[in-house]
């Protein structure tokens, strides 16, 4: 009789254990896991912003959606990540705004030099009707922009001193894979070399390129200051890092969860901008002191005049440019 009680008790324990496992399985099945990938290290403002976005989405859906982040190009470089998002094979990715030109050329307007007066103007533009309209053109190609992180204030970083715009003529200039940046380099008379960001350090080190267009955060975080000691500080581009979402993933979500995504993206973007601004200021100071970089200031008025031929190349964007410049 005692043996039978032990036997029955053992069965009950096993059944309880299986019941618990089953409930956990149901809970896991009820959680939608989405993936977000980017190319930068975990100490970069992109990653910090991605973590905040994931946290807000998880809280807003009460744990129903979990976003797993893959930094350091673990799932590929920016171009490949955007392609994966477009095809519905990846849920989210971060990539600089030039990546979107392959899906909607008009998005190149965000990379035009001196189109923004300052970062406050930039923020107002991307949150305006005209900003949202320009980003919306990528949706036909499977990419929905739900936010735009702060990328950085970009100038010329070089192996040898550049003190004026005329010094750029003839140098080997790395530009981001973007038609707007390629045309920018040509307007300046440089020998243009489009390269992925991950290839820039070695190219500078070997002298394959003389200079790049880059911001303080990336220069410090990726140690480009080790192989390029000079900055022609034009501050000509306020670049963005769009948070791209697959249209396929978006369509899978309920209206309630779509709303959570938008709200989380807006809050995470505002938070990330503040973090990135402070990081950029701190990194710029560090590069000028401990990083040993030499800075040469540039005139904004002169730069805008030099870049005018670039604007002439995109006359079809004139109404959009005017709308952006009109935002107070």
Helix content: 40-55%
Structural class: alpha/beta
Percent strand equals 15-25%
Uncertain stretches = 2-29
What count of helical segments does DSSP give?
13
* Main β sheet profile: 9 strands, mixed
The chain-level mean pLDDT equals 92
Computed over alpha carbons, the radius of gyration is: 24 Å
Please report the total strand number as a whole number.
9
Q: What sort of overall outline do the alpha carbons produce when their principal axes are compared?
A: globular
Overview of this structure, please?
The chain has 328 residues and is of the alpha/beta class. Helix content is 47%, strand content 20%. It is built from 13 helices and 9 strands. The protein has helices spanning 2-30, 45-60, 78-87, 119-126, 129-136, 179-187, 200-206, 216-221, 247-252, 255-289, 300-306, 308-312, 318-326, and strands spanning 32-37, 65-70, 92-94, 143-158, 172-175, 191-194, 211-214, 230-246, 294-297. Strands 1, 2, 3, 4, 5, 6, 7, 8 and 9 form a 9-stranded mixed β-sheet that branches. α6 links the parallel β5 (172-175) and β6. The radius of gyration is 24 Å and the shape is globular. 41% of the residues are buried.
Task: Outline the secondary-structure elements.
Elements: H1 2-30, E1 32-37, H2 45-60, E2 65-70, H3 78-87, E3 92-94, H4 119-126, H5 129-136, E4 143-158, E5 172-175, H6 179-187, E6 191-194, H7 200-206, E7 211-214, H8 216-221, E8 230-246, H9 247-252, H10 255-289, E9 294-297, H11 300-306, H12 308-312, H13 318-326
Parallel strand pairs: 1-2, 1-3, 5-6, 5-7, 8-9
Antiparallel strand pairs: 3-8, 4-7, 4-8
Helix pairs in contact: 2-10
